[in-house]
Write a structure and sequence with these properties.
The chain is an alpha+beta fold and 208 residues long. The protein has 7 helices and 9 strands. Helix 3 packs across helix 4.
Amino acid sequence: MNELDFTLDAKALDDDGHIEGLAAGYGNLDYGGDIILPGAISRSIAGRKSVPMLMYHDQKRPAGVWTDFQETAEGLLVKGRFSMSTTTGREAHGLVKDGAIGGLSIGYRAVRDRMVGKARHLIEVALHEVSLVTIPMNEKALITSVKSLIAAGQLPSLSQFEDFLREAGFSKSQATAIAGKGLAPLLRGEPGSDTSDFIAALAAQVRA
């Protein structure tokens, strides 16, 4: 089974465990070299009533179920619910709510594809499951994930912020230094650290 990752841009998340988000975006090149084309999942989701929601593609860690699928101009929009009666379901819900889970990853089998240069274009795929993952492999998804956290007034993790800075063009040493001096004290809750000012400054740069 193949995997393809995208940002978890949670459009709706409530305390009862319902969630809505984009599971697969069209036209983004994954670090693995795959691009999913519009309509690639259409046949697989036709008539489907549910798709498993897993943690990290681990079949032993089901977290809930996806029950509604809609193809949009952006990609595959999914709606589902966490199994709040289970430990894994409650854990997954809490991690998404806190921003610790940064992406969705589809588990699929390629039915039809073609190589265009070094990229594999997925024409049709069979969708097996949609998993919650910490950081998506897709470069655009990683940036969108961090931007979404900032826009929501939440702090990204140190590693997420460092990766975000790397994608913005900073060297590894520069990203580590910036994150260490700017974000790390806030995450540690050191006296004199103003989280709101830091988030406001980041949000202004993201919107620029």
